[in-house]
Amino acid sequence: MNNFQYFTPTKVIFGKDTESQAGDLVKEQKGTKVLVHYGTGSVKRSGLLDRVYASLDKAGIPYVSLGGVVPNPRLSMVYKGIELCKKEDVDFILAVGGGSAIDSAKAIAYGLKYDGDVWDLYLKKEVPQDAMPLGVILTIAATGSEMSNSSVITNEEGWLKRGLNHDISRPRFAIMNPELTYTLPEYQTMSGCTDIMMHTMERYFSHEMDTDLTDYLAEGLLKAVMHAAKVLLTKPEDYDARAEILWAGSLSHNGLTGCGRLGDWACHQLEHELGGMFDVAHGAGLAAVWGSWARYVYKSDVARFAKFAVNVMGIPYDYADPEKTALEGIEALENFFRSIHMPVSISELGVELNDDQIKELAHKCSFMDTRTIGGIQKLDKKDIAEIYRMAK
Ligand code: NZQ
Ligand code: ZN
Fold it and tell me: DSSP H helical segments within the chain, as ranges?
Protein backbone atom coordinates (compact mmCIF):
# COMPACT_ATOMS: atom_id res chain seq x y z
CA MET A 1 0.00 0.00 0.00
CA ASN A 2 1.35 3.44 -0.91
CA ASN A 3 1.55 6.28 1.58
CA PHE A 4 -1.51 8.49 1.39
CA GLN A 5 -3.31 11.49 2.85
CA TYR A 6 -7.06 11.42 3.40
CA PHE A 7 -8.62 14.82 4.02
CA THR A 8 -12.39 15.25 3.92
CA PRO A 9 -13.33 18.40 5.82
CA THR A 10 -16.81 18.71 4.27
CA LYS A 11 -19.72 18.46 6.71
CA VAL A 12 -22.43 16.33 5.08
CA ILE A 13 -26.10 17.00 5.81
CA PHE A 14 -27.95 14.15 4.16
CA GLY A 15 -31.65 13.42 3.79
CA LYS A 16 -35.13 14.80 3.26
CA ASP A 17 -35.80 18.55 3.68
CA THR A 18 -32.17 19.26 4.60
CA GLU A 19 -32.04 22.29 2.27
CA SER A 20 -34.03 24.18 4.90
CA GLN A 21 -30.86 24.21 7.03
CA ALA A 22 -28.87 26.23 4.47
CA GLY A 23 -29.13 29.56 6.31
CA ASP A 24 -28.05 28.13 9.66
CA LEU A 25 -25.14 26.32 8.04
CA VAL A 26 -23.89 29.52 6.39
CA LYS A 27 -24.18 31.24 9.77
CA GLU A 28 -22.21 28.44 11.41
CA GLN A 29 -19.46 29.13 8.85
CA LYS A 30 -19.56 32.83 9.78
CA GLY A 31 -20.78 33.89 6.34
CA THR A 32 -22.33 37.38 6.43
CA LYS A 33 -23.10 37.96 2.73
CA VAL A 34 -23.70 35.15 0.29
CA LEU A 35 -23.44 34.61 -3.44
CA VAL A 36 -26.08 32.04 -4.47
CA HIS A 37 -24.67 30.49 -7.64
CA TYR A 38 -26.72 28.16 -9.85
CA GLY A 39 -27.31 26.72 -13.32
CA THR A 40 -29.63 27.32 -16.20
CA GLY A 41 -32.99 26.97 -14.52
CA SER A 42 -33.72 23.55 -12.98
CA VAL A 43 -33.44 24.93 -9.43
CA LYS A 44 -35.91 27.69 -10.25
CA ARG A 45 -38.40 25.34 -11.90
CA SER A 46 -38.29 22.92 -8.95
CA GLY A 47 -38.87 25.68 -6.40
CA LEU A 48 -35.59 24.83 -4.65
CA LEU A 49 -34.14 28.29 -5.11
CA ASP A 50 -37.09 29.92 -3.34
CA ARG A 51 -36.69 27.53 -0.42
CA VAL A 52 -32.97 28.38 -0.23
CA TYR A 53 -33.73 32.12 -0.23
CA ALA A 54 -36.33 31.55 2.51
CA SER A 55 -33.77 29.72 4.62
CA LEU A 56 -31.21 32.52 4.20
CA ASP A 57 -33.87 35.13 5.00
CA LYS A 58 -34.86 33.23 8.13
CA ALA A 59 -31.23 33.16 9.29
CA GLY A 60 -30.96 36.90 8.55
CA ILE A 61 -28.27 36.45 5.92
CA PRO A 62 -28.26 38.83 2.94
CA TYR A 63 -27.44 37.44 -0.49
CA VAL A 64 -26.99 38.18 -4.17
CA SER A 65 -27.65 35.66 -6.95
CA LEU A 66 -25.90 34.66 -10.12
CA GLY A 67 -27.50 31.99 -12.29
CA GLY A 68 -26.75 30.75 -15.79
CA VAL A 69 -23.87 28.32 -15.20
CA VAL A 70 -23.91 25.91 -18.15
CA PRO A 71 -22.71 22.28 -18.15
CA ASN A 72 -18.95 22.35 -18.82
CA PRO A 73 -18.89 25.69 -16.94
CA ARG A 74 -17.26 28.64 -18.64
CA LEU A 75 -14.49 30.96 -17.58
CA SER A 76 -16.48 34.06 -18.60
CA MET A 77 -19.08 33.21 -15.93
CA VAL A 78 -16.31 32.85 -13.36
CA TYR A 79 -15.04 36.36 -14.15
CA LYS A 80 -18.60 37.66 -13.82
CA GLY A 81 -18.95 36.00 -10.41
CA ILE A 82 -15.66 37.40 -9.14
CA GLU A 83 -16.66 40.91 -10.16
CA LEU A 84 -20.09 40.62 -8.55
CA CYS A 85 -18.71 39.24 -5.28
CA LYS A 86 -16.15 42.06 -5.05
CA LYS A 87 -18.78 44.68 -5.72
CA GLU A 88 -21.19 43.20 -3.17
CA ASP A 89 -18.65 42.33 -0.45
CA VAL A 90 -19.60 38.66 -0.54
CA ASP A 91 -17.74 36.46 1.96
CA PHE A 92 -19.42 33.07 1.37
CA ILE A 93 -20.48 31.25 -1.81
CA LEU A 94 -23.41 28.85 -1.91
CA ALA A 95 -23.55 26.67 -5.02
CA VAL A 96 -27.00 25.22 -5.74
CA GLY A 97 -26.91 22.57 -8.45
CA GLY A 98 -24.53 20.02 -9.92
CA GLY A 99 -20.83 19.76 -10.63
CA SER A 100 -20.95 22.69 -13.02
CA ALA A 101 -22.40 25.18 -10.53
CA ILE A 102 -20.07 23.87 -7.82
CA ASP A 103 -16.96 24.03 -10.01
CA SER A 104 -17.82 27.54 -11.14
CA ALA A 105 -18.28 28.51 -7.46
CA LYS A 106 -14.88 27.03 -6.60
CA ALA A 107 -13.25 29.01 -9.42
CA ILE A 108 -14.88 32.22 -8.17
CA ALA A 109 -13.67 31.33 -4.66
CA TYR A 110 -10.09 31.01 -5.93
CA GLY A 111 -10.36 34.17 -8.01
CA LEU A 112 -11.49 36.25 -5.04
CA LYS A 113 -8.28 35.44 -3.20
CA TYR A 114 -5.90 35.78 -6.12
CA ASP A 115 -4.66 39.08 -7.52
CA GLY A 116 -3.94 37.89 -11.07
CA ASP A 117 -6.06 36.14 -13.70
CA VAL A 118 -7.71 33.08 -12.11
CA TRP A 119 -7.10 31.11 -15.34
CA ASP A 120 -3.36 31.17 -14.50
CA LEU A 121 -4.18 28.82 -11.61
CA TYR A 122 -5.89 26.39 -13.99
CA LEU A 123 -2.88 26.58 -16.30
CA LYS A 124 -0.70 25.75 -13.24
CA LYS A 125 1.31 28.94 -13.68
CA GLU A 126 0.66 29.67 -9.99
CA VAL A 127 -0.45 27.59 -7.00
CA PRO A 128 -3.52 28.92 -5.18
CA GLN A 129 -2.83 30.13 -1.65
CA ASP A 130 -6.38 30.71 -0.47
CA ALA A 131 -10.04 30.51 -1.48
CA MET A 132 -13.31 32.06 -0.29
CA PRO A 133 -15.30 29.50 1.78
CA LEU A 134 -18.16 27.80 -0.02
CA GLY A 135 -21.05 25.46 0.66
CA VAL A 136 -23.16 23.29 -1.63
CA ILE A 137 -26.74 22.20 -2.11
CA LEU A 138 -26.44 19.27 -4.49
CA THR A 139 -29.08 18.43 -7.10
CA ILE A 140 -27.42 15.60 -9.05
CA ALA A 141 -25.44 12.51 -8.06
CA ALA A 142 -22.41 12.61 -10.33
CA THR A 143 -19.11 14.44 -9.99
CA GLY A 144 -18.53 14.33 -6.26
CA SER A 145 -17.45 17.97 -6.48
CA GLU A 146 -19.43 18.53 -3.27
CA MET A 147 -16.59 16.85 -1.34
CA SER A 148 -13.73 16.84 -3.84
CA ASN A 149 -10.75 19.17 -4.16
CA SER A 150 -11.35 19.59 -7.93
CA SER A 151 -12.80 22.26 -10.13
CA VAL A 152 -12.98 21.91 -13.92
CA ILE A 153 -13.50 25.00 -16.08
CA THR A 154 -13.71 25.55 -19.84
CA ASN A 155 -12.04 28.59 -21.38
CA GLU A 156 -14.06 29.63 -24.43
CA GLU A 157 -10.88 31.03 -25.95
CA GLY A 158 -9.49 27.88 -27.56
CA TRP A 159 -12.12 25.64 -25.88
CA LEU A 160 -9.66 24.28 -23.37
CA LYS A 161 -11.15 22.42 -20.43
CA ARG A 162 -8.76 22.34 -17.48
CA GLY A 163 -8.95 21.06 -13.92
CA LEU A 164 -7.47 22.50 -10.73
CA ASN A 165 -7.08 20.33 -7.63
CA HIS A 166 -6.43 21.92 -4.26
CA ASP A 167 -7.72 21.11 -0.78
CA ILE A 168 -8.57 24.73 0.03
CA SER A 169 -11.48 24.51 -2.40
CA ARG A 170 -13.21 21.63 -0.62
CA PRO A 171 -16.71 22.79 0.34
CA ARG A 172 -17.36 23.54 4.03
CA PHE A 173 -20.70 21.75 3.89
CA ALA A 174 -22.75 19.74 1.43
CA ILE A 175 -26.52 19.48 1.72
CA MET A 176 -27.73 16.31 0.00
CA ASN A 177 -31.42 15.58 -0.27
CA PRO A 178 -32.08 12.63 -2.62
CA GLU A 179 -35.55 13.99 -3.38
CA LEU A 180 -33.97 17.01 -5.08
CA THR A 181 -32.66 14.66 -7.76
CA TYR A 182 -36.08 13.23 -8.78
CA THR A 183 -36.49 15.85 -11.53
CA LEU A 184 -33.36 14.78 -13.43
CA PRO A 185 -33.85 13.48 -16.97
CA GLU A 186 -32.83 9.82 -17.34
CA TYR A 187 -29.80 10.73 -19.47
CA GLN A 188 -28.37 12.97 -16.73
CA THR A 189 -29.07 10.38 -14.03
CA MET A 190 -27.25 7.68 -15.99
CA SER A 191 -24.46 9.98 -17.03
CA GLY A 192 -24.04 10.76 -13.33
CA CYS A 193 -23.98 7.05 -12.41
CA THR A 194 -21.28 6.50 -15.03
CA ASP A 195 -19.18 9.36 -13.66
CA ILE A 196 -19.52 7.99 -10.12
CA MET A 197 -18.36 4.56 -11.28
CA MET A 198 -15.49 6.06 -13.25
CA HIS A 199 -14.17 8.02 -10.25
CA THR A 200 -13.72 4.72 -8.44
CA MET A 201 -12.50 2.85 -11.52
CA GLU A 202 -9.88 5.49 -12.27
CA ARG A 203 -8.49 4.73 -8.82
CA TYR A 204 -8.95 0.95 -9.15
CA PHE A 205 -6.99 0.51 -12.38
CA SER A 206 -3.40 0.92 -11.30
CA HIS A 207 -0.73 -1.61 -10.44
CA GLU A 208 -0.75 -1.74 -6.60
CA MET A 209 -1.86 -5.20 -5.45
CA ASP A 210 -2.01 -4.95 -1.65
CA THR A 211 -4.91 -2.65 -0.91
CA ASP A 212 -7.60 -5.14 0.09
CA LEU A 213 -9.81 -2.76 2.05
CA THR A 214 -9.69 -0.07 -0.61
CA ASP A 215 -10.47 -2.67 -3.28
CA TYR A 216 -13.44 -4.08 -1.35
CA LEU A 217 -14.80 -0.56 -0.82
CA ALA A 218 -14.36 0.18 -4.53
CA GLU A 219 -15.96 -3.04 -5.71
CA GLY A 220 -18.87 -2.65 -3.27
CA LEU A 221 -19.47 0.92 -4.38
CA LEU A 222 -19.46 -0.08 -8.05
CA LYS A 223 -21.95 -2.89 -7.46
CA ALA A 224 -24.25 -0.65 -5.42
CA VAL A 225 -24.25 2.03 -8.13
CA MET A 226 -24.93 -0.48 -10.91
CA HIS A 227 -27.84 -1.92 -8.94
CA ALA A 228 -29.34 1.49 -8.15
CA ALA A 229 -28.95 2.67 -11.76
CA LYS A 230 -30.99 -0.31 -12.94
CA VAL A 231 -33.70 0.43 -10.38
CA LEU A 232 -33.83 4.09 -11.47
CA LEU A 233 -34.39 3.15 -15.11
CA THR A 234 -37.91 2.09 -14.22
CA LYS A 235 -38.44 3.90 -10.90
CA PRO A 236 -36.83 7.35 -11.11
CA GLU A 237 -38.44 8.36 -7.81
CA ASP A 238 -37.14 5.43 -5.79
CA TYR A 239 -35.81 7.27 -2.72
CA ASP A 240 -33.40 4.57 -1.62
CA ALA A 241 -31.82 4.15 -5.05
CA ARG A 242 -31.48 7.94 -5.37
CA ALA A 243 -29.92 8.03 -1.88
CA GLU A 244 -27.46 5.24 -2.74
CA ILE A 245 -26.08 7.02 -5.79
CA LEU A 246 -26.04 10.42 -4.10
CA TRP A 247 -23.86 9.13 -1.27
CA ALA A 248 -21.79 6.97 -3.63
CA GLY A 249 -21.06 10.07 -5.72
CA SER A 250 -19.44 11.78 -2.75
CA LEU A 251 -17.52 8.75 -1.53
CA SER A 252 -16.32 7.95 -5.02
CA HIS A 253 -14.49 11.24 -5.35
CA ASN A 254 -13.52 12.27 -1.82
CA GLY A 255 -10.52 9.95 -1.94
CA LEU A 256 -11.93 6.99 0.03
CA THR A 257 -11.92 4.48 -2.81
CA GLY A 258 -8.33 5.28 -3.75
CA CYS A 259 -6.48 5.26 -0.42
CA GLY A 260 -3.07 3.68 -0.94
CA ARG A 261 -3.44 3.52 -4.72
CA LEU A 262 -1.92 5.73 -7.39
CA GLY A 263 -4.81 5.67 -9.84
CA ASP A 264 -4.95 6.13 -13.58
CA TRP A 265 -7.20 9.05 -14.69
CA ALA A 266 -6.54 8.66 -18.43
CA CYS A 267 -10.26 8.36 -19.27
CA HIS A 268 -10.98 11.64 -17.49
CA GLN A 269 -8.24 13.38 -19.44
CA LEU A 270 -9.59 11.90 -22.69
CA GLU A 271 -13.12 13.01 -21.83
CA HIS A 272 -12.21 16.51 -20.73
CA GLU A 273 -10.99 17.35 -24.23
CA LEU A 274 -14.21 15.97 -25.71
CA GLY A 275 -16.24 18.03 -23.24
CA GLY A 276 -14.21 21.16 -24.02
CA MET A 277 -14.50 20.82 -27.80
CA PHE A 278 -17.94 19.26 -28.22
CA ASP A 279 -19.78 20.14 -25.00
CA VAL A 280 -20.84 16.55 -24.26
CA ALA A 281 -22.21 15.42 -20.88
CA HIS A 282 -19.18 14.39 -18.83
CA GLY A 283 -20.36 10.92 -17.72
CA ALA A 284 -21.61 10.00 -21.19
CA GLY A 285 -18.24 11.05 -22.61
CA LEU A 286 -16.50 8.75 -20.15
CA ALA A 287 -18.71 5.81 -21.16
CA ALA A 288 -17.90 6.53 -24.81
CA VAL A 289 -14.13 6.20 -24.36
CA TRP A 290 -13.77 3.68 -21.53
CA GLY A 291 -14.02 0.45 -23.56
CA SER A 292 -11.45 1.61 -26.12
CA TRP A 293 -9.07 2.76 -23.38
CA ALA A 294 -9.49 -0.56 -21.54
CA ARG A 295 -8.78 -2.65 -24.66
CA TYR A 296 -5.73 -0.50 -25.40
CA VAL A 297 -4.15 -0.89 -21.94
CA TYR A 298 -5.44 -4.12 -20.35
CA LYS A 299 -2.35 -6.14 -21.31
CA SER A 300 -0.24 -4.02 -18.98
CA ASP A 301 -2.13 -5.55 -16.03
CA VAL A 302 -4.25 -8.52 -17.04
CA ALA A 303 -4.58 -9.64 -13.40
CA ARG A 304 -6.14 -6.32 -12.39
CA PHE A 305 -8.64 -6.36 -15.24
CA ALA A 306 -9.48 -10.00 -14.48
CA LYS A 307 -10.04 -9.14 -10.82
CA PHE A 308 -12.45 -6.40 -11.91
CA ALA A 309 -14.22 -8.85 -14.23
CA VAL A 310 -14.75 -11.40 -11.47
CA ASN A 311 -15.39 -9.21 -8.41
CA VAL A 312 -17.45 -6.47 -10.05
CA MET A 313 -18.95 -7.89 -13.23
CA GLY A 314 -19.49 -11.45 -11.95
CA ILE A 315 -17.52 -13.15 -14.74
CA PRO A 316 -16.26 -16.67 -13.85
CA TYR A 317 -12.45 -16.77 -13.67
CA ASP A 318 -10.86 -18.77 -16.47
CA TYR A 319 -7.72 -20.21 -14.87
CA ALA A 320 -6.40 -21.34 -18.24
CA ASP A 321 -6.92 -17.95 -19.85
CA PRO A 322 -7.00 -14.92 -17.51
CA GLU A 323 -6.80 -12.62 -20.53
CA LYS A 324 -10.13 -13.98 -21.72
CA THR A 325 -11.59 -13.17 -18.29
CA ALA A 326 -10.20 -9.62 -18.49
CA LEU A 327 -11.72 -9.07 -21.93
CA GLU A 328 -15.07 -10.50 -20.86
CA GLY A 329 -15.10 -8.01 -17.98
CA ILE A 330 -14.54 -5.11 -20.37
CA GLU A 331 -17.33 -6.33 -22.60
CA ALA A 332 -19.65 -6.83 -19.62
CA LEU A 333 -19.16 -3.25 -18.46
CA GLU A 334 -19.80 -1.93 -21.97
CA ASN A 335 -23.00 -3.99 -22.02
CA PHE A 336 -23.96 -2.47 -18.70
CA PHE A 337 -23.43 1.03 -20.13
CA ARG A 338 -25.62 0.07 -23.09
CA SER A 339 -28.30 -1.21 -20.71
CA ILE A 340 -28.49 2.19 -18.98
CA HIS A 341 -28.58 3.93 -22.38
CA MET A 342 -25.08 5.32 -22.25
CA PRO A 343 -22.97 5.57 -25.43
CA VAL A 344 -20.03 3.20 -25.90
CA SER A 345 -18.48 5.10 -28.80
CA ILE A 346 -17.93 8.74 -29.67
CA SER A 347 -20.32 8.55 -32.61
CA GLU A 348 -23.01 7.34 -30.20
CA LEU A 349 -22.36 10.58 -28.31
CA GLY A 350 -23.48 12.38 -31.44
CA VAL A 351 -19.97 13.43 -32.48
CA GLU A 352 -18.52 12.24 -35.81
CA LEU A 353 -14.76 12.76 -35.49
CA ASN A 354 -12.57 13.35 -38.54
CA ASP A 355 -8.83 12.77 -38.51
CA ASP A 356 -7.93 16.43 -38.01
CA GLN A 357 -10.19 16.59 -34.97
CA ILE A 358 -8.59 13.43 -33.56
CA LYS A 359 -5.18 15.06 -33.96
CA GLU A 360 -6.39 18.25 -32.30
CA LEU A 361 -7.91 16.31 -29.39
CA ALA A 362 -4.68 14.34 -28.90
CA HIS A 363 -2.59 17.50 -29.12
CA LYS A 364 -4.67 19.25 -26.46
CA CYS A 365 -4.93 16.17 -24.25
CA SER A 366 -1.16 15.73 -24.27
CA PHE A 367 -0.85 19.43 -23.33
CA MET A 368 0.59 20.20 -26.75
CA ASP A 369 2.75 17.08 -26.67
CA THR A 370 4.39 17.91 -23.33
CA ARG A 371 2.92 15.22 -21.06
CA THR A 372 1.76 11.64 -20.88
CA ILE A 373 -1.51 10.59 -19.23
CA GLY A 374 -2.51 7.42 -17.37
CA GLY A 375 -1.05 5.31 -14.58
CA ILE A 376 -1.62 1.67 -15.48
CA GLN A 377 0.05 2.50 -18.80
CA LYS A 378 1.62 5.81 -19.72
CA LEU A 379 0.01 7.19 -22.87
CA ASP A 380 1.67 9.75 -25.12
CA LYS A 381 0.12 11.83 -27.89
CA LYS A 382 0.29 8.95 -30.36
CA ASP A 383 -1.41 6.52 -27.96
CA ILE A 384 -4.06 9.11 -27.14
CA ALA A 385 -4.86 9.62 -30.83
CA GLU A 386 -5.09 5.85 -31.28
CA ILE A 387 -7.59 5.52 -28.42
CA TYR A 388 -9.76 8.33 -29.85
CA ARG A 389 -9.57 6.53 -33.20
CA MET A 390 -10.65 3.22 -31.62
CA ALA A 391 -13.47 4.98 -29.75
CA LYS A 392 -14.71 6.80 -32.85
O1 NZQ B 1 -28.31 24.01 -15.42
P2 NZQ B 1 -29.51 23.33 -14.82
O3 NZQ B 1 -30.78 23.94 -15.26
O4 NZQ B 1 -29.40 23.20 -13.33
O5 NZQ B 1 -29.56 21.85 -15.46
C6 NZQ B 1 -28.60 20.86 -15.20
C7 NZQ B 1 -27.73 20.56 -16.41
O8 NZQ B 1 -28.43 20.76 -17.60
C9 NZQ B 1 -29.30 19.55 -14.99
N10 NZQ B 1 -29.71 19.30 -13.61
C11 NZQ B 1 -28.94 19.26 -12.50
N12 NZQ B 1 -29.68 18.93 -11.44
C13 NZQ B 1 -30.95 18.76 -11.88
C14 NZQ B 1 -30.97 19.01 -13.27
N15 NZQ B 1 -32.10 18.95 -14.01
C16 NZQ B 1 -33.24 18.61 -13.38
N17 NZQ B 1 -33.28 18.32 -12.05
C18 NZQ B 1 -32.17 18.38 -11.27
N19 NZQ B 1 -32.22 18.06 -9.96
O20 NZQ B 1 -28.35 18.55 -15.35
C21 NZQ B 1 -27.46 19.07 -16.31
C22 NZQ B 1 -26.05 18.73 -15.89
O23 NZQ B 1 -25.65 19.46 -14.75
P24 NZQ B 1 -24.12 19.58 -14.39
O25 NZQ B 1 -23.96 20.36 -13.15
O26 NZQ B 1 -23.36 20.03 -15.60
O27 NZQ B 1 -23.76 18.03 -14.17
P28 NZQ B 1 -22.60 17.32 -13.42
O29 NZQ B 1 -22.85 17.31 -11.97
O30 NZQ B 1 -22.42 16.03 -14.11
O31 NZQ B 1 -21.30 18.25 -13.66
C32 NZQ B 1 -20.51 18.11 -14.80
C33 NZQ B 1 -19.29 19.01 -14.73
O34 NZQ B 1 -18.43 18.68 -13.61
C35 NZQ B 1 -17.12 18.36 -14.08
C36 NZQ B 1 -17.39 17.83 -15.47
O37 NZQ B 1 -16.23 17.80 -16.26
C38 NZQ B 1 -18.44 18.81 -15.96
O39 NZQ B 1 -17.84 20.01 -16.35
N40 NZQ B 1 -16.45 17.45 -13.14
C41 NZQ B 1 -16.13 17.95 -11.93
C42 NZQ B 1 -15.44 17.19 -10.99
C43 NZQ B 1 -15.08 17.76 -9.67
N44 NZQ B 1 -15.20 19.05 -9.50
O45 NZQ B 1 -14.66 17.04 -8.76
C46 NZQ B 1 -15.02 15.81 -11.26
C47 NZQ B 1 -15.60 15.21 -12.48
O48 NZQ B 1 -14.75 14.22 -12.95
C49 NZQ B 1 -15.93 16.18 -13.58
O50 NZQ B 1 -14.82 16.42 -14.43
ZN1 ZN C 1 -15.71 12.59 -13.59
Answer: 22-28, 42-45, 48-58, 75-88, 99-112, 119-122, 186-204, 212-234, 239-253, 266-278, 282-297, 302-311, 322-339, 355-365, 381-391
* Predicted confidence (pLDDT) per residue in 209-224, tens digit: 899 999 999 999 999 9
Question: In the β-sheet with 173-176, what is the strand arrangement from edge to edge?
Answer: 11-14, 173-176, 134-138, 92-97, 34-38, 63-66
* Residue type present at position 140: I
Domains and CATH numbers, the chain: 11-180 (3.40.50.1970), 184-391 (1.20.1090.10)
Sites in the chain below the pLDDT cut of 70: none
Please tell me the predicted confidence (pLDDT) of residue 209: 87
**Triad 12, 17, 21: Cα angle to 5°:** 60
- Which residue among 77, 152, 154, 203 has the greatest number of ligand 1 atoms within 8 angstroms of its CB, and so is best to mutate? 152
Pocket test for ligand 1, best of 38, 143, 162, 250 (most atoms within 8 A of CB): 143
